[in-house]
Design goal:
Blueprint (H helix, E strand, L loop, with lengths): L2 E7 L5 H10 L5 E6 L2 E7 L3 H15 L3 E2 L1
Antiparallel strand pairs: 1-3, 1-4, 2-3
């Protein structure tokens, strides 16, 4: 299984919400905070499209500002 890393800019006060949703969804990604508002999502090649879709669909709720 090939590992992937995604970086996203989100509202720093909403990081906990994204972490909770990803963990509740079967640990599809492991989230690390790199700096306030920038998170690193570690996932697999198989689940990467679904992780991206989840983050993008949560958009306003987590203050998603884009991929880095």
């Amino acid at each position: 299984m090939e590992g992937r890393q995604l970086k996203a800019k989100i509202d720093p006060q909403k990081i906990y919400l994204l972490r909770f949703i990803l963990e509740a969804s079967g640990h599809m990604a492991w989230l690390s905070t790199l700096e306030p508002g920038v998170v690193l999502l570690r996932t697999s090649a198989e689940t990467e499209p679904l992780v991206k879709k989840i983050v993008e669909e949560l958009g306003e709720k987590i203050g998603f500002q884009g991929w880095l």
